[in-house]
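seq as requested:
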Amino acid sequence: MLKIENLDVRVDNKEILNNFNLTINDGEVHAIMGPNGVGKSTLSRVIMGDSNYKVTKGSITFDGDNMIPLSVDERAKKGIFLAMQYPLEIEGVSNQDFLRTAMSSVGNKQVGLYDFILQCEKGSKELSMNQELIHRELNVGFSGGEKKKNEVLQIKLLHPKFIILDELDSGLDVDSLRICAENIWKYKEDNPNTSILIITHHPKILEYIKPNFVHVVEDGTIIKTGNYILATIIEKDGYNVIAKEEENE
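struct tokens:
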């Protein structure tokens, strides 16, 4: 589904990703872990097409198509979705209008109001969201947990085939994390070919959304790949043990 080859990325003349390689097949769940500042969130932005991040070398293909020339909305229409670490607050735009417009844009057809309301009610109930949040300004005055639940509601409504979770667990209490993660996993069970890329510091979310592969990033490149056990080792011993292993090899 997604193939990244020999990717170099710069931001403000500083190299963030260096010879980065990653292949994600249909239906796979991958986790990217690593300390702050190693390029994890940069990866999510580059895949989504943020113009602040400049690809200086390498390629990104999705379902065989070159992604680099495409805009953010074009990538979204191909089925890529980014759940942001810090969802934006937009005054003057209702959550309802935003969600319905996004659904119509991605699906290339106008979504009927009645159908939209039914889907929103069902999704928000499954997420234990306050129904009033649908009618308020987008993320304005939302708690951290409410913002993240709203991101997951978008997944339910937009039906992406490739989901990027950029530190979904940050700012969430235990109950909100469980609810968000369980809803994402249920979505994947209903759509088994959906692939997920989880970017996280902590392995707690991986207890709910079990990865096929865990990758550790350092200095903008993957230095080690394993399975879920690798995440538990990091939780117990930290990233230093991985770095030491690489030095010894």
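The helical segments are 40-48, 72-77, 95-107, 113-126, 144-158, 174-190, 228-237, 240-248.
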